[in-house]
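not sure who needs this but someone in the group chat was asking about Glutamate synthase subunit beta from Corynebacterium zhongnanshanii so here u go. i didnt clean anything up, its just raw.
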Amino acid sequence: MADPKGFLKHTREEAEHRPVPLRLLDWNEIYEDFSDSKVQTQATRCMDCGIPFCHDGCPLGNIIPEWNDLVRKGEWKQAYDRLHATNNFPEFTGRLCPAPCEGACVLGIADDPVSIKSVELTIVEHAYANGWVQPVKPTFKTGQSVAVVGSGPAGMAAAQQLTRAGHDVTVFERADRIGGLMRYGVPEFKMEKKWIDRRIEQMEAEGTKFVVNTSPTGEDLKDFDAIVMAIGSTVGRDLPVPGRDLEGVYQAMEYLPPANRVGYGDMETSTIDAKGKNVVIIGGGDTGTDCFGTALRQGAKSVHQFDIMPKPPKSRAASTPWPTYPLKMRLASAHEEGEYTVTGDESADLAEKLALAERKPGEALGERRWQMNTVELIGEDGKVTGLKGAQCQFGPNGLENVEGTDFEMDADLVLLAMGFVSVERSAAVADLDLEVDQRGRLVRDENFRATPQAPEFAKKKVFVAGDAGRGQSLIVWGISEGRATAAAVDRALMGETALPRPIKPTDVAMRA
């Protein structure tokens, strides 16, 4: 341990965000540079605990104290080796993961936890800058072929592990680019897609084959020795209220992909544009927050995000004691932008955008509202124009509206971001005749193995990885499940495996 009093000397610090008036003018990532010296100071806060609960908090089992210790010594290459031993894509988790490891940090019991995520991201960016990230080619070929259906974090992780084990791996993606919801569901301002492209180059050099614009059928898959279904859980929860069928009401995943295409230059204008509109986002999670930041960049007249849950406390709620992931109030970058108050001194470009949105000095750009229940969507000539709702609470009979809190507000664009409920019944799911449980997940056993009911696939080695089997979850769980599924596939094909399995069989069996 380089400095046993580091956590007493230094306070938590993270990379600053670019000023709101600047970042609202583009789709670039929001982060300022975070110097190596500051990162090393943050790594010095690691207590090198006798029992590092951060290991358990991280679904990948990242060896966090070890690479913290190496970073504070300036041994970046060794830190990178430790990091990549457990995480295929730290540049993704370092930008997008909500860091359950930090929620489990022992220092977090009485102080702010170590900035683990910032250290992780800096390590991998050091590795790229210094040419340490190289293709890891297999030392031998097994002669076995594996199809991976879906190219999100789980599919990419499974594919990379299996390719390195010597199998011939083909990844099928129905979209025109690899990355799944990381590509089209996550806005550029949270993660620029050049980081995905950079990693794909490495995977292709290792031997992984990618096929885009293809939703494979059973015919496409029949000649593979094993199949990994990593198709995600992408069917959004709907809103069963009057007016749901009005024009201007969309699922978040209808809204975000075209907006993201604008963000990295595929289109000039999104097919669903918030410019000059009163936007209401129903759903308080990450997807709704992504819609929030996107609508602000498009020049929305107003943005409101409704969360059905009570406002979280400022510090860890008693319902989520350490080392569980803490329920507490968090300020996402989009909400930080929403709290920005117009001053009248903005740059000419931003002033023009704000003028189009009819905002006046003293007005904030958007707001979150808690315990809000949408009762009805109202409209004219088939288009949504407003929303009726009420404050709500959870009572003995479930969700109840609070008497006397009814309200009505303007809404020209309503975005539904209430979570995801099931896998899509794709051609592959239908042709293999895979079982789907009551929660909309593909059924699998504790070794990630599915049981195809279609006679021609009954003896096939078919596996399910990521959200398709787990239900909608975190990017870090996707990578972890991809790695674990790869180990299961390798063992099924070869009789044994040297690939690591970060997820215990009980974690899979007890996922419900």
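also The radius of gyration is 24 Å. if thats useful
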